[in-house]
Predict the structure.
Amino acid sequence: MQRHRFDSTGRDVPIIGQGTWYLEEGDPASAIAALRRGLDLGMTHVDTAEMYGEGAAEELVGEAIAGRRDEVFLVTKVLPQHASPTGTIGACERSLSRLRTDRIDCYLLHWRGPHRLADTIAGFEELRRDGKILSWGVSNFDARDLKEALAIAGEGRIACNQVLYHLEERAIEHAVLPWCERHGVAVTAYSPFGHGRFPGLRSAGGRVLAKVAAAHGATPRQVALAFLTRRPSLFAIPKASSVTHAVENAAAGEVRLTAAEIDVIDNAFPLRSTPASLPML
Ligand SMILES: NC(=O)c1ccc[n+]([C@@H]2O[C@H](COP(=O)([O-])OP(=O)(O)OC[C@H]3O[C@@H](n4cnc5c(N)ncnc54)[C@H](OP(=O)(O)O)[C@@H]3O)[C@@H](O)[C@H]2O)c1
């Protein structure tokens, strides 16, 4: 499993991790087995949120990582409506309890909501001083939001921006990804398989993925994950509720695409939309 530096934390984190949205909707034994097999195979970046199943996903994660906490880079998220200074602290303490741990490696604001960013960041900083979180970050932030957070917190504080990023949705490459790379903010790709809408084998893009995959003895999904994590700033967190899927996803962490293969995939899944605004320095 390749690792990239999760920049401001100084931690080397596996490029392929494990998502947990809707994990609680399936068979819990299968979900826990998938998470544990994922950990065995190096997918120790585990992403969850208080929102997922109203805490049920965090409880599953807590069970899956019991006895193995030190292996895990644990990420969870506060809901925007809880993200006042005291609300953030209360939400974090409830997450810690469900996760059966004393610390979160990276605590994220799930998306921007009613509370002032400065208030949420004040809550994060208090949690960090108390050792309940080791770092904090954001999610679904555009370049303008990031710039505002940076102005409040200063350089080196925003550990991560977790964003929608898959082969058919590459909009972050216009402004968000360059901004994060300039400021040492790790970028985690959520819904890397398009939340289950992965290009079919009969589509033009699907055929390109299959051809690249064949050259590596890999699968199209593994090639997609390798493409999405091709830069040192990038990580991906596919969600799998079966051991079979977890095993396939973990092996993507060994696939190294050539520059020519990256070009071929880039052409097959072009960066379409025009940026709404130019990158902000
Ligand atoms: N910050 C945010 O706002 C935000 C938003 C969305 C998601 N996320 C995070 O990102 C994670 C991933 O995104 P996502 O859950 O939306 O979707 P995703 O990972 O793009 O896709 C999940 C779907 O792909 C299937 N799958 C996984 N591995 C597979 C494999 N090897 N072969 C075939 N199918 C496979 C899963 O099936 P099975 O379940 O049957 O294995 C599931 O149906 C979430 O779980 C969550 O942790 C964050």
